[in-house]
Amino acid sequence: MTASGPLRRFGRARLVRSVAVAGVAAVALPLFGATAASAAPATPAAATAPAAGTATAYPNTLDGWIRESLSVMAQHGIPGSYDAIHRNILRESSGNPQAINLWDSNAVAGTPSKGLLQVIDPTFRAYHVPGTPFDPFHPVANITAACNYAADRYGSIDNVFGAY
Questions:
Q1: What is the pLDDT of residue 51?
Q2: Which residues neighbour 44 within 8 Å (Cβ) at sequence distance 6 or greater?
Q3: What's phi and psi for 80, nearest 5 deg?
């Protein structure tokens, strides 16, 4: 990024957001207030990405499950955004991957909704995405299958704003 690029045109706040979106937020720290002697050299984003064939380690948290699901979804062409997945998870299960609904019409029919996005077993089986465990309680498998279903039914999980 040159001095005549985004920094001058958009100001400091815009550059920080742009760099953070690119996934190299650590590079933004030396750009502001660091001396030339202490500033780390900027590393291109491609150089910080994992090498081909190496797995990215995601934290075993809601954030990590969503990010890992988005990675699997991208590999399979399944649309969806972090915000939409997060919004739907909070509504459906409050972030509990072991959540199970034992009272709604699905449960009465013998197929309770399970996991983070409350998927019933027949839907999970039909929309399971290869590369994830075949377990509706597994957070990444549940999110990815639910997003695959939402993409088929509604175009994307981004279009889901209520029970689906």
A1: 53
A2: none
A3: 155, 155
Residues 160/134, Cβ–Cβ less than 8 Å: no
Three-class SS state of 150 = helix
The answer to whether 116 touches 95, Cβ cutoff 8 Å, is: yes
| Token couple for 154 | 């509604």
What backbone phi and psi angles, to 5 degrees, belong to 77?
70, 30
Cα–Cα distance measured from residue 19 to residue 8, given in angstroms and rounded to the nearest whole number: 15
Helices (H), the chain: 6-10, 12-21, 25-31, 45-48, 62-76, 82-93, 105-108, 121-127, 139-154
Cβ proximity of 106 and 120 under 8 Å: yes
Write phi, then psi, for 100 (nearest 5 degrees): -145, 135
Q: Which residue, chain included where needed, has tokens 């995601």? A: 58
**Residues 6+ positions from 62 with CB-CB distance below 8 Å:** 86, 89, 95, 116, 139
Query: What pLDDT digit, counting tens, does each position of 29-39 carry?
Result: 333 333 333 33
